[in-house]
Design brief:
This protein is mostly helical. The protein has three domains: about 70 residues, no CATH class; about 180 residues, no CATH class; about 60 residues, DnaJ domain (Helix Hairpins). The strands form two sheets. A two-stranded antiparallel sheet has the order 1-2. The chain has a two-stranded antiparallel ribbon with strand order 3-4. A hairpin with a 4-residue loop joins strand 1 and strand 2. Helix 7 runs antiparallel to helix 9, helix 13 runs parallel beside helix 16 and helix 15 packs antiparallel against helix 16.
């Protein structure tokens, strides 16, 4: 909410803050507003009445913990958009994109950060130990955490205790961890987030070809690595797979620009797509449905090849692959599936 409102003037801020929104650019409700007011009031505690009784009263600074809104718990925010809403083309089919080039760059950054996520180096019990809070009694509420932090921060602040810098930094780290991690501990990359990032890019390339055509797509190393990892996964057909979204993005990038077709070829993307195609073609049957994962992947790759084949070097690479004709014939053999291509 704060990131979104930074882009608007005070009138727009008031409109959003006092209203109710559920769009790709704003998710905000009366319930969320009440929660924010309650958290701020609890953080300020008795400062207001103390200030009324003594206008020279000092407020000992302690940063407010991050406010975790249940409504945003599973949302991924990028640029000025909540990507789950942004990718919901049924509810928001033509939502305006203010700066497609900037959004693409931010989506690539978000993708890199998501892929590089690692399990936390600190556990909740470790943080409790640093703050001298009892362990094994469940989660402590924010007021207890804040008091424990404030007490130790006052004691070991370098301005008051030059020898306490190391402890002060540990206390800060523990407090920051608890404020941001109590609701949800991140154990690594979230496949659902990566799917949203991939779909966001497909929407951009599909709707803003003219703006993106002059630029070479910078995400091929990550995209090809994703397709390779998914294709080689033994659990490919029994998990949430990134392959449909990844192969769809490959098609849209190539369809957008000849530069991208050549870059895909140079990065061995045509061979990688062929491996995914072979894996998915092998499981097609007469009962396959258009929304089956293998059908979607085969469709995206066929469309990608149909565009790439318009360029001589890509066409030569495709014709060098001995199995492609047989596998295309297998797709067409299943007429219910082949009709989609």
């Amino acid at each position: 909410m704060v990131c979104y409102l930074e882009n608007y003037d005070s009138d727009k801020f008031s409109e959003i803050f006092l209203g109710e929104f559920d769009t790709p650019e704003a998710i905000w409700s009366n319930e969320m507003r009440r929660l924010m007011i309650e958290k701020i009031a609890a953080h300020l505690a008795d400062f207001t009445p103390r200030l009324q009784s003594n206008t020279r009263a000092l407020y000992q600074y302690c940063p407010i913990p991050v406010i975790n809104y249940p409504q945003l718990e599973n949302e991924l925010f990028c640029n000025i958009y909540y990507l789950k809403h942004f990718c919901d083309t049924f509810r928001f089919p033509d939502w305006p994109i203010k700066d497609p080039v900037k959004l693409l760059k931010d989506a690539l950054d978000a993708w890199k950060k998501e892929v590089e996520k690692k399990p936390p180096t600190m556990s909740i019990d470790d943080a409790y130990e640093v703050l001298n809070l009892p362990k094994g009694q469940g989660q402590h509420d924010e007021s207890k955490i804040r008091k424990a932090y404030f007490r130790l921060a006052q004691k070991y602040h370098p301005d008051k205790n030059p020898e306490g810098r190391d402890i002060f930094e540990k206390v800060n780290k523990a407090y920051e961890f608890l404020c941001t991690k109590l609701v949800k501990i991140v154990d690594g990359p979230d496949p659902e987030n990566i799917i949203l990032i991939l779909k966001t890019q497909s929407i951009l390339f599909n709707r803003h070809k003219e703006e993106l055509q002059p630029f070479k797509y910078a995400g091929y190393p990550m995209l090809i690595r994703t397709i390779t990892m998914e294709t080689s996964d033994d659990q490919l057909f029994s998990k949430v797979s990134l392959l449909p979204a990844a192969t769809e993005l490959a098609f849209h990038t190539v369809s957008c620009s000849a530069l991208n077709a050549e870059e895909l070829r140079r990065e061995n993307g045509i061979e990688v797509l062929q491996e995914a195609f072979s894996r998915c073609v092998a499981v097609l049957t007469n009962s396959s449905k258009p929304d089956d994962m293998c059908v979607q992947v085969c469709g995206h790759i066929c469309r990608c090849y149909s565009v790439a084949a318009q360029f001589e070097e890509c066409r030569e690479k495709i014709t060098e692959m001995p199995n492609i004709i047989r596998e295309l014939c297998r797709v067409l053999y299943y007429s219910k599936v082949g009709d989609d291509y």
